[in-house]
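Researcher: Re-running this chain for the archive, since the previous output was lost when a drive failed. Same request as before.
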Amino acid sequence: MKLIECPRDAMQGIPQQIATKTKIDYINQLLKVGFDTIDFGSFVSPKAVPQMADTADVLQGLDLSGPSKLLAIVANMKGAEQAISHQQISYLGYPFSISETFQQRNTNKGIAESQQLVNEIMTLLDMQELVIYISMGFGNPYGDKWSPDIVEKYADQLIEMGVRTISLADTVGIAEGKTIASVFNRLSKSF
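Model: Regenerated structure tokens:
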């Protein structure tokens, strides 16, 4: 089991800009804990997520002398290219939703376009690995079809593209124990 801490997710939702030094100090404290991975920032449009505009600056201030690895979120090729240029980053994370509605809202791309982008990012990777966050992994409040079969279908397709790590996300906090068990039982048989 690997523990992944995600300060990025909390920070990006805070409307007041957090000082770069404060982010660096906080993440450096998390790095001392010994988490396997820290999801520390994202290379996305500063218009879309202003809080993450200083991700490259934060990265430069981190003490990476310990064993923890870094993950940065990307949502397009420009972000992927920026993240890949930083060798300190072990993982690029891409938010892939099985909800067409949420995928459009989150990345301005549909599911098919996102799959194409995943393929393009995979060709750029050198030392890093692409981690796919399957958003709406346990349900969908937007009215798009959802079932464990659909989750498995997209997980299969992503693995066929060469993705080795998939993280199922309860994006909107609707997962129940029974649903989580059903999805994990289904996927553990396939993978």
